């Protein structure tokens, strides 16, 4: 159990070990408080069409994309919120989570489109296509009505179990994931968006949570891409623990029988003291704001989210020092002393103010491009893998829950206390989210109604146990 963790253990799942890992995944899903999910895809189509202003047009296009492309890997991260001990209940400052993480390589058995840009992106981030085509867990798209495979281990049945468990579902920027998950592992997508959202509302009655929506509209982060909000959540959580505030502790239980399939992914973070004493490389503004740079190969600036956060913290410190100097000046004091919060960084106050002004003008900071590129290379281990991205998503949700949630009568936190944030999916280029709900004008599809009834009547033997 730790606030700070430098590696994250992910169980790598393929056709070779799927049956062996199956009971562990089912148990983790069944016992979880919520489940975070992420996917890697063979393509996402034209971004302009998938960001159409008319939401119905946007859905129709995404439906076509999901029908013609495929899921390449599925990440499932199961989070169990542990009941606090009596002393911790009194303070209500710590939330302990137990996490099981699975990265499942899958292979669609039907023909599907692949987009060179998407494949190139995945290769650059370490995706193994030899493993995917050679050892991917096979699945067939669309409806499984009349199939007799509902009692055997399969990706489709794993998704069915996720629905039957009744847990809240957590995603990041989740519309595309939801469309692909439905089409690939559940049923043929409905023609209308309102029918689709009605089906989702019935499939996940405990709610669907989107961390991008929470980051943008509730927390008010300056950027909302997943790696940024995860690394910032890590840092803030560590700082809160150091000053005796609310913080999340993480446990990664190890299953001895699965030890041969576990890959440990680098996940180091820096605390405030480490950051303020470290020279900050020049940061690419495009990467800082959006998490990507179209000129990454030729851009000599840093594409490391740690450098982005270092810069933010230094600017924050600079503003705090400026306010303190102004207050001391107005109160008649002739001397400005730096308090312990500022960690006595060797840089002068002028340097900090210059840094703040420089950032405010959308310029860059001091220069060490070699150091920045080295850190950026090291940081690649951390993202764009479905299992790890699912963990990052769930971890962010846990930190948001601790900060925003309300404890029940038993002093426990649950996502139900964040009901106002449930079923709101972030929409790019839109000021309002997509609401997952039923209304008098929309009803679940007939195919979903039949399937969900069949699933709930036919509980797998492993779940009964």
Automatic annotation (TrEMBL):
<dbReference type="InterPro" id="IPR036397">
    <property type="entry name" value="RNaseH_sf"/>
</dbReference>
<dbReference type="InterPro" id="IPR051181">
    <property type="entry name" value="CAF1_poly(A)_ribonucleases"/>
</dbReference>
<dbReference type="GO" id="GO:0016607">
    <property type="term" value="C:nuclear speck"/>
</dbReference>
<dbReference type="GO" id="GO:0015030">
    <property type="term" value="C:Cajal body"/>
</dbReference>
<dbReference type="InterPro" id="IPR006941">
    <property type="entry name" value="RNase_CAF1"/>
</dbReference>
<feature type="zinc finger region" description="C3H1-type">
    <location>
        <begin position="278"/>
        <end position="306"/>
    </location>
</feature>
<dbReference type="GO" id="GO:0000175">
    <property type="term" value="F:3'-5'-RNA exonuclease activity"/>
</dbReference>
<dbReference type="InterPro" id="IPR012337">
    <property type="entry name" value="RNaseH-like_sf"/>
</dbReference>
<keyword id="KW-0863">Zinc-finger</keyword>
<comment type="function">
    <text>Inhibits cell growth rate and cell cycle. Induces CDKN1A expression as well as TGF-beta expression. Mediates the inhibitory growth effect of EGR1. Involved in the maturation of snRNAs and snRNA 3'-tail processing.</text>
</comment>
<comment type="similarity">
    <text>Belongs to the CAF1 family.</text>
</comment>
<keyword id="KW-0862">Zinc</keyword>
<keyword id="KW-0539">Nucleus</keyword>
<keyword id="KW-0479">Metal-binding</keyword>
<protein>
    <recommendedName>
        <fullName>Target of EGR1 protein 1</fullName>
    </recommendedName>
</protein>
<dbReference type="GO" id="GO:0008270">
    <property type="term" value="F:zinc ion binding"/>
</dbReference>
<dbReference type="InterPro" id="IPR036855">
    <property type="entry name" value="Znf_CCCH_sf"/>
</dbReference>
<dbReference type="InterPro" id="IPR000571">
    <property type="entry name" value="Znf_CCCH"/>
</dbReference>
<comment type="subunit">
    <text>Interacts with U1, U2, U4, U5 and U6 snRNAs.</text>
</comment>
<feature type="domain" description="C3H1-type">
    <location>
        <begin position="278"/>
        <end position="306"/>
    </location>
</feature>
<dbReference type="GO" id="GO:0005730">
    <property type="term" value="C:nucleolus"/>
</dbReference>
<keyword id="KW-0007">Acetylation</keyword>
<dbReference type="GO" id="GO:0017069">
    <property type="term" value="F:snRNA binding"/>
</dbReference>
<dbReference type="GO" id="GO:0034472">
    <property type="term" value="P:snRNA 3'-end processing"/>
</dbReference>
<dbReference type="Pfam" id="PF04857">
    <property type="entry name" value="CAF1"/>
</dbReference>
<keyword id="KW-0597">Phosphoprotein</keyword>
